[in-house]
Each structure stands twice: as C-alpha cells, then as structure tokens.
Amino acid sequence: MEKRDFMYEGKAKRMFTTDDPAYCIVEYKDSLTAFNALKKDSIEGKGQLNNLISSALFEYLASKGVETHFVRRLDDVRQLVRKVSIVPIEVVVRNITTGSLCKRLGVEENRALARPLLELYLKDDALGDPIITEDHALLFGWSTEEQLAKIKDVSLTVNTLLTDYFAHLGIILVDFKLEFGVDGTGKLLLADEISPDTCRFWDAETKKKLDKDRFRKDLGDVLGAYREIWRRVSEGSK
Q1: DSSP 3-state assignment of 135?
Q2: Which of 9, 59, 91, 182 is the most buried (most CB within 10 A)?
Q3: How many CB atoms lie within 10 A of CB 41?
Q4: Tens of pLDDT, residues 159-206
C-alpha cells in the first residue's frame, strides 16, 4: 500500500491517503498533550510504543469479534487502517472513580464501581469536549439511534474483554476513551487508538500509574510506564 497525500494532523497522530481510497495510513507521533492541549511535550519513542500497543490490542479485539478500522501494523510508527468518517462522540468507560469524574461530581477517588459507567462527550476541542446526553447526540444529529446503540454495546464489550485481558497481565483497567467511525460501506467501526494515551492503567499490586497520568500529574518516567505496558502486552501474547 503506497502512502500518498497528507490528510490531517491531530494531537498524537498524522493521517495520509493511500493508492486505495478505502484505506489510509496512521502515523503515531512522539508528542504528549493533556488538559485539551494546554500542557504539551514530546518524548522520543512514545509514538512507537503507542503504535505497538494499539496494534496488539486491535488485533486482540478483532480475534474476539470486535470490528475495527485496523488492518495491520506497517512499521514502528505506522498502521494501515480503513478510512472512516469519525462520529463526533467520544465514549469514556469507567470502572474506578478518578480524574475529571471526581472533580465534576465531588465523588471520592479510587472507588470501584458496581458496574461500568459509560459517558458520552462531544468531540470538539474548541468547546473542551463537553459531556453530553444521548438525547443531545440524537437531537443534534451527532449519531443515529442505531449507531448510538451499537457504540454503547461495543464499548461495554470492549471493557469486558480488555478488563479480563489486562487482569491476566497484572494490570487494572481503570477507564478508557473510545472513538468510532463509519467506513465507505456505512459500517460502524471502532477507530482511533487504544493505548496509555487513551486508557488509565494501574499496576494491580502497587497501584502505580502506567499511563498518561504520569505526564498529567508530573509523576515522571512517562516513557518507562508506556514501556512497561508494552512489555506485559508483548509477553502476554506469546
């Protein structure tokens, strides 16, 4: 598959067209952002680790029947993916209370929830990705009822699969963000990435944070945490 024209650059990835209009290439960057890009940095090797981790997790989910935009990993920083139009809704699934949830609602930190909490956010950097309801999504045309039902179902399925997957690696899946897109045939697919940039991972024994919270909270050794996630994922797949 031949890389053609530059399409788009986001906070963590660049997109390129290919010689087949149904596919594009994702290139992972070393940049780190937090708080809607108010905090920025770059760490050499971070893009490679996110590409490796996300590729492995997409492959795992595909083996369990979850349809995604991922086709294959091309090299250290690039993936071949199906071209999709992103649904402008970010889904956050929470298993333990932390982060913005506690700040927004005043609930205690580190509380294990009786069942997963699924939240919807409007994907709009200029507005700070505000939380929305299902009615917002439907009435303003950000998704259809059929899309929203599938988004919720797939998100909870992914949570079940990845919670068990990471538990076997000695990691707690605290929460994570997902995005979805519609391909040229109208099929809704899981898209974007699944990595320490988009998930909160805690070591099951020590509760050490192994994700972007190390950058958000100035905990240090960000790359070391990402490397540890990749080490466990790669060893667990052998």
Answers
A1: helix
A2: 91
A3: 12
A4: 999 999 999 999 999 999 999 999 999 999 999 999 999 999 999 999
Give residue 129's pLDDT band: very low, low, confident or very high (50, 70, 90): very high
Instruction: Judge whether 13 and 77 are in contact, CB under 8 Å.
Output: no
Buried b / exposed e across 159-172, counting CB within 10 Å, b at 16+? bebbbebbeebebb
Spatial distance between the Cα atoms of 26 and 7, rounded to a whole number of angstroms: 10
H-type helices in 99-221, by residue range? 100-105, 134-139, 145-167, 213-216
Tokens, residue 33: 């952002």
Residue pair 186/110 in contact by the 8 Å Cβ criterion: no
**pTM score, whole prediction:** 0.96
Q: What are the residues whose beta carbons fall under 8 Å from the beta carbon of 97, sequence distance 6 or more?
A: 107, 108, 109, 110, 111, 113
Q: pLDDT (tens digit, 9 = 90+) per residue, 20-48?
A: 999 999 999 999 998 877 899 999 999 99
Q: Which residues sit opposite 190 in a β-bridge?
A: 68, 180
Task: Tell me the residue type at 65.
Answer: G
If one counts every other C-beta atom within 10 angstroms of the C-beta of residue 72, the result is 11
Q: Which of 72, 82, 103, 114 is nearest to 182 (CA)?
A: 82
Task: State how far the alpha carbon of 20 is from the alpha carbons of 3, 50, 67, 74, in Å.
Answer: 9, 25, 20, 15
